[in-house]
């Protein structure tokens, strides 16, 4: 089986959210649903100096662009009670069969990356399918082609590893990798390891 994957270079990302907006506009997603989110992770503080000014004290920040990671062992597929969550045997793309999805949100609870979300109007779960139709036609996902900084890339996992190396998917604010995520991250120089970070996601609620 071919396994498609995403590559994300956090050192190139400026947090412009073009990937997020391009995806949302292309698929006409509801207000409260996103297939891709750009997370703003920050930490540190500003402290007063003896001169009465403020200086950074361990201040850092970086962005992580996150969608479904089309995991090798997807928790959504393993836990879906109706078989609506499927992993394509030829491409490794994880997609949702809306004809049998009952919107129970089990996949949303199971996914460590929060990829599936419930469509209130649709009555079923919504999730990135890696622009399956674009890929089948020889193209790339909309988020990849839309990124102005070329922080995102797409291809087979083997191709991406040859091009970028193994990377490190276990960087804050991402969780520890328990599902063999097919996301290769080139970490930002300030990146902190998953579970040991000192910062937090500072996005406004309406951005996520």
TrEMBL record:
Keywords: 4Fe-4S, Electron transport, Iron, Iron-sulfur, Metal-binding, Repeat, Transport. Residues 4-34, 60-90, 92-121 form the 4Fe-4S ferredoxin-type domain. InterPro entries: 4Fe4S_Fe-S-bd, 4Fe4S_Fe_S_CS, DMSO_DmsB, ET_IronSulfur_Cluster-Binding. The keyword Oxidoreductase does not apply. One of its GO terms (molecular function) is 4 iron, 4 sulfur cluster binding. Gene3D superfamilies: 3.30.70.20. Its cofactor is [4Fe-4S] cluster. NCBIfam families: DMSO_dmsB. This is Dimethylsulfoxide reductase, chain B.
